[in-house]
Amino acid sequence: MFGTLGGPRLLLRRLREVMAEPVSPQARLDKIVVHIAANMVAEVCSVYVLRADGRLELYATEGLNREAVHLTTLRTGEGLVGLIAETAEPLALADAQLHPSFMYRPETGEEIYSSFLGVPILRGGNTLGVLVVQNKARRAYPEEEIEALQTTAMLLAEMIASGELQSLAPPGRDIALRRPLALKGTPIAEGVGLGHVVLHEPRIIVKQLVAEDVKKEIERLDTAIGAMRRSLDLLIDRGNMGPGEHRDVLETFRLFAHDRGWLRRLREAVATGLTAEAAVERVQNDTRAKLQRQTEPYIRERLHDLDDLANRLLHQLTGQGFVGTHDEMPYNSVIVARSMGPAALLEYDRAKLRGLVLEESGALSHVAIVARALGIAAVGDVANIVDLVEPGDALIVDGLSGDVHLRPSPDVEHSYAEKARLRARKQAQYHKLRDVPTVTKDGVAIDLHMNAGMVVDLQHVAETGAVSVGLFRTEIQFMLASRLPKMSEQEALYRTALDSVDGKSITFRTLDIGSDKILPYMAKVEEENPALGWRAIRIGLDRPGLLRSQLRGLLRASSGREMRIMFPMIATLEEFETAKAFVEGELAHLRLHGRAAPSSLKLGIMIEVPSMLWQLEEACKQVDFLSVGSNDLIQYLYAADRDNKRVATRFDPLSAPVLHALKLIADTARASATPLTLCGEMGGKPLEAMVLLALGYRGLSMSAASIGPVKAMVLATRLREAESFVLNLINEAKGGHSLRDKFRKFAKSKGIPV
């Protein structure tokens, strides 16, 4: 029962006034506990703050021994206060001393108090501390008092988050909100980035917590809920998507927006005296704290849905946009986001960007391709990163190991700064190798080509000394556009690309979409196994207008110049023959309209479907060149989806089954004198590249950043020695065990940098 001081709304107003007073942080906190105790008719009110070392420290109290402040500490999980911090749930007890977690602390003088009510101080679902009230008499705290104390805890969370209480902590005893965290994710793009956090979709900071007119706030809440529901209905119902898993997911999302329990909790939070925005934040804080502690994957996955709904509702209430202003982006920025489309990353100023950390996207996502093209250190699959960071936090991104250091200690920061300097020195050394012929120690010439997908990539051709662009991913243009690019737009891009490489050749791969590469303006086709489904050349042959438009753009752009076109996902020679007929048709169209044809036209295929292993000899008679797509070839050889974390790393490319298949391709191409390159990820890793050379590959295509390390490996290798070791090893190998360690030991013994 609240006292005569006016209930929770008046308490919130009074606490707001205290927050605005020009007093020291300790004096402010001392006043807050006095007001809460008086309003709740409690003899005790105490605030415990979670420290970086995981202990809860008594920061202020009214009713207990004041001398215990900053001296009394508890471990998380220890005593009633520790239990609340561990579970992130309120605890109300009429007789606290009967609870199994009750622990008597003589220095506080709390042995005379029976009743206990404690609530977690939450921000983003993370526990920052615990707020407690106690009474001498046995007392059953009603639900409205628990709600009121939870609401009050929001103000304390704001105070802690502001950093104000950090000044009360002695050196080495940081509060938990500012503690250093070492996180692990999936490497996306190599490099080391040191900078400060910029949220891609900035959180809405709720500044007005106290409602002036509760009835008006409930009306605002209901209006925003209605607007949010209508926007979801439009999202789901437009486009006539038809049945499928995507529809089921969105329908489930819509059900959450109509969930009575969620809506009831929002209205109850407003009724305690909060603004509509503060109510949304309060309910989502509680929900996130509970779901984060669930072990059931399905329940934890629902957390993202509820986060999204709460975020949408906050934007409806405030009218704020989802993306921050790029003009205000500081230097040395590290972008942090739950997920991000590839076009969004390009909107940021590259000169200010040092790194990218994503909560959901992995190494094969579309934004990962763009990050690698821009040379930005990037890590994905970092759990809960958006809720752990604050804008401006120091952040280190290690794109090679997948390590992310949030608020790093000076030692860690110094270590990574040195690592970044070392990387820069290595890059400078690799740059010196640019004009050095890529020849092994025993005189075998190797061609190193570069993979690209955007015009911005092509500046690296000259910088790295790449022989050519061995793979130009034409689908990137389609992925970044808001609509299907016109033929004239495609032609302009291809012409600009050819103009950018100073006469060197570019191998353009025709549109490789489907599976994980879905164009935002094309309806997604639901398939049980999309990696085995309607994708790449299969879409082009079934939608000839799409393929012909691209071929026409490529042929027009290369007027009077060499043009190399490569078809992906060829499973049968008949597919290549049909695609070749389309090219011949477009050449006839050029001549009919008096346009100049390419001076030289080469057509090739990617070997990435295992069925082609038994059509290689015939393929070599029909194509001008071959290129191995090792990423897809390996996933199909092992029937292991490379986008599935459970199986993606289950098999090692450096094992005998894969290497036998790759050797078969190299031997067949050599026998027929058919030019051959490998453009998958294997070619850009020095150890894997060394093995590929031993198998007979003389052309490798890779990212710009990989050319230097691979060239250094080539220059240090005696190929005959490597061939002898590799071939003997794979011929003697039994089963499919990884041979990686043995290859690495060989390289080390020969002084080959891998």
Rg from Cα: 31 Å
- What general form does the structure show? elongated
Mean residue pLDDT: 87
Number of strands: 22
First and last CA, distance? 71 Å
The main sheet comes to:
8 strands, mixed
Structural class, please?
A: alpha/beta
Uncertain segments = 1-6, 239-247
Strand order of the biggest β-sheet: 7-14-13-9-10-11-12-8
DSSP summary: helix tally: 26
Content of β-strand: 15-25%
What percentage of residues falls in helices of 4 or more residues? 40-55%
How do you describe this structure in short?
The protein is α/β, with parallel strands linked by helices and 754 residues long. 44% of the residues lie in helices and 16% in strands. It is built from 26 helices and 22 strands.
Explain what you see:
By secondary structure, the protein is an alpha/beta fold. It has 26 helices and 22 strands. The strands form 3 sheets. Strands 7-14-13-9-10-11-12-8 form an 8-stranded mixed β-sheet. An 8-stranded parallel β-sheet has the order 21-20-19-18-17-16-15-22. Strand 11, helix 11 (366-374) and strand 12 (377-380) form a beta-alpha-beta unit. Helix 5 (214-237) packs antiparallel against helix 7. The radius of gyration is 31 Å and the shape is elongated.
